[in-house]
Amino acid sequence: MTKHILILALAVGLASPAWTAENNAAPKEESIGVGSGLVAGALAGGPVGAIVGAAMGGWLGDKFHRERSAKLDFERQSEQARLESEQARLEADELFGRLQSRNADLSQLRSQWRVAQRDYRNALQQALDTQIYFRTGESKLDDETGERLSRVAGLIAELDDLDVVVEGHADARGAEDYNEQLSSARAQAVHDALVQAGVSPRRIHSIAVGERLSTADEKDLDAMALDRRVNLSIVDQRAPNRVARQ
Q1: Among 3.30.1330.60, 1.10.10.10, 2.60.290.11, 2.30.30.110, what is the CATH number of 131-245?
Q2: Where are the domains of the chain?
Q3: Residue 243, SS3?
Q4: Going along 67-182, which residue ranges are E strands?
Q5: What is the pTM assigned to this prediction?
Q6: Who contacts 216 (Cβ-Cβ below 8 Å, separation ≥6)?
Q7: Which of 59, 18, 20 is nearest to 36 (CA)?
Q8: Which of helix, strand or coil describes residue 245?
Q9: CA distance 30 to 17
Q10: pLDDT digits (tens, 9 = 90+) for 80-107
């Protein structure tokens, strides 16, 4: 009995934190394991049991320490990954917000561009909202008409997707063949004025209508003056059937 008590006392003493400086530096779990192993081994098997118990206790304590450390590392890594994921989500939300803002700005710019394009074409249509009239039997343009066509050409030249149709007309007096040639000469005069002002000849299409669309009575001189004209039409190359006729 006394022997057992001495062994137990020795085990408890060895398990004490003040046993050696090396044991003080060991992980807490390992120290607890060694102490517990000493006590259990001493009670079970005397000195030999104490040594074996201490060894087993130390191994178990070290294993517990490593498992606990691994768990703490995993938790730290998981938390770090969560924080990084949250940061990435916030950055993605910010980028998405910027993209939406830019899309809205782009949509606004497109809308403004369409309005500007419509206004520009309206200005072109207003510039063409006059007929080009000629004296009886003449196909020459006067200076005022030439200046007006020059301004029109400046507008047309800026719109590459538009072509110009030039229709020459004549009143019903005289022979039909003569009126055909006269209307062709009038259309050619306007064609030449537009080209001289900067419109590509490839974008101008001249048509001689002659007297076929004349509606004035030969006794109505004022009405016949309206038949001696050239009509201008602008045609969208992308939609040939859409004609803004002036």
Answers
A1: 3.30.1330.60
A2: 1-127, 131-245
A3: strand
A4: 132-133, 162-169
A5: 0.51
A6: 171, 172, 223, 224, 226, 227
A7: 59
A8: strand
A9: 11
A10: 888 888 888 888 888 888 888 888 888 8
